[in-house]
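Tutorial, part two.
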Amino acid sequence: MLGTVRAQIRDRLTTARFTLAARGVDTPQALAAVLTAEGQMRATDGFDHVQLDSNLEGNGLRLGRSTIAAIRSLAQTGEGTLVAPLTGKLAAALQREARGSALDADIRLRIDPQGYSLLAPRAELRGGSGAQLVSLSRVEIAAPDGEAPYVAGNIATGGANMPRISGRMERSESGGSIFRLAMERYAAGDSALAVPQIVIAQGPGGALGFSGRVLASGPLPGGSATNLLLPLEGRYAGGQLALWRSCMDVAFDRLQLADLTFEKRGVTLCPARGRPILSSGPGGLRIAAGTSGLDLEGSLGETPIRIATGPIGFGYPGVMTAREIDVSLGPVETASRFRISDLDARIGQDIAGTFSDADIAIAAVPLDLMQASGQWRFADGRLAIEEGAFTLVDRDESPRFEPLMARNATLTLAENVIDAQALLRNPASERVVTAVDLRHDLGTGAGWADLDVPGVRFDEDLQPEQISQLAKGVIANTRGVVTGAGRIDWAANGTVTSTGRFSSDDLDFAAAFGPVKGAAGTVEFTDLLNLTTAPDQTIRVASVNPGIEVFDGEVGFELRNGEVLAVSGGSWPFMGGELLLRDVDLTLGISEERRYIFEIVGLEAGTFVTAMELENISATGLFDGTVPIVFDERGDGRIDTGVLISRPPGGTVSYVGDLTYEDLSPIANFAFDALKSLDYSQMRIVMEGPLTGEIVTRVRFDGVRQGDAARSNFVTRRLAALPLQFRINVRAQFYQLLTNLKSLYDPASVRDPRELGLLSDDGTRLLRRSITGEEAEPDIDPDDIVPDEEPIQEQESE
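Running the prediction step on this input gives:
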């Protein structure tokens, strides 16, 4: 330091004038190439009281080591946030202005036994550009003995690329200092900071407390903000910054987290108990906050989004937890809904976590994902879900499909497009029903889903009604494998189309009209979701057994809207002729009376006898007729007056076995002998009764005469000349009747007619059993009466 000092001492008074200059001034806060001071000093009472008035000038000022370190620390702490670019801009501006900078200040220093005070009526720092960087007026720094210093005065900052701050400092009633400051918008690229108002209070020990508002724009951890208005409340002491120890209301014009953007909303954030929301210091930046709920609107990429939630907790670095999330994604008319009970996230370089108990509904697809859970990760603008589990349910009020479950499903969301893959299983058997590959464009609301059915096996563990309840009451006890593929497309205008083709080579099942075996063919759906097929679908049937098994048939049908199964007929070769199922419409999913009409065309009596293995009976003749089978609402079936009629000219029936009962009357012997070889011009068979109960079969022979193989004598030849008519009524359990026809000729299977009350004990005369009133008036067809002749025998033999 160089200079001159002229002093004068008189008694207890000392005065001096000085001119001083220092080069290479180095302090932790600032450096100066040249610093000069010119002024005067006055001291009294042995320097107990000192007053110094001086003008200070400095040139070539630069930032000191501690100041530079503080700026760098602030930039590092705020890395990835708006603090970093703003701090970088400030540091660069200070470095530029430092070259050729100048300080000019007037000061007055007073020292006495009560303490000291430093006054600066005027002070300014100009940069190398000539701009005024800092301006002080009426600044006073006072430190009463034993107390922390306080500051008062006015301050203003400016200059190119420098923040513009204006403020006033004054002493508080408690003796500390209060700073009232405001800063205009200070921007660096997309980052900006403005302080409409802030009050800083200096407490004992130098700690600073502050309260005000900050308007910020720029990067934030995991996103960015535009015009984020934050209430600013905190404390700075010992290099540690703590903000918001109580709840605060935050508002913004735009808040972005990754691709998620919200517009013009507000939220109330509260800190964890006993901790501030934000803390920054040597340990880095930490954020922990929570809210009782959100109500936000914005966009995900280019897709509109609305979010309402229950409680949310957020920590950086750390985790985020959210409860009762309700997300609506997409335009209102085509919005997809996501309801998530629990969501957890780990926040670091990327965001990842888990979710559980979620319900997802894509508007265009009438199928919902329920109770979904899995792991998710968001990085580089891409959301990925792995190990997803969910239950797929039909959204329709009357579900067409039973729920299916998935495990290890995957989903990605990138560039506004969802891609997902899953294997859908039947929950009870855990068998794969279909593999799904799905794509959905959130921007347009359009997408598609491919369905691959690699082979669904039906057996005792899995039945069609476990996939769709519409199959209940239509088919059961299914055995076999079904393969196929389907596709669902949904357009931006909400139109949904779906198609599919499904096949089987060998499918067995029980239908209402009897067991079906070997069903094979391909069924084509024109509307898979609504279970509608193309017209005239055909399947081959190896066999069907409505009571008598028939083989190698074909059934045509059409399924309409999952409600009506329209059978357009079926046909099978049958006993030398053909068995036809007439057209019938079946309403699915409800209990109703269902009527199946089987038409028999050209049944050969001989083929029938051979097929039934009736070895002691031979027959000829062709028969036509119909057999209606009706099932009521409870599923109980009955034959509703089935009729078979022989074609002209009739035929023969021959019994070639031995007569077991020989001790009979002549009339009885005649009847049984006639049955050994019987020619008829017409045979009429009528059947009716419940399938599970007693079936009444009425057989009537017209134009009956003994055949050539029947034994005859004088009496039987005279009787045979008469016009005969046989009527036979058979009452038996339906299935028992069909399976026990051998009893007609097997002596071991036939009971003694005397035990049945048909003959007297000595076997000489026929007995008439007591009958009901209903049986007393049998239905008589006009053809039953032979014109102009009396009936030979009115009694029906039963």
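Residues 734-751, 768-780, 782-798 have pLDDT under 50 and may be disordered. In part three we will examine how such features are distributed along the chain.
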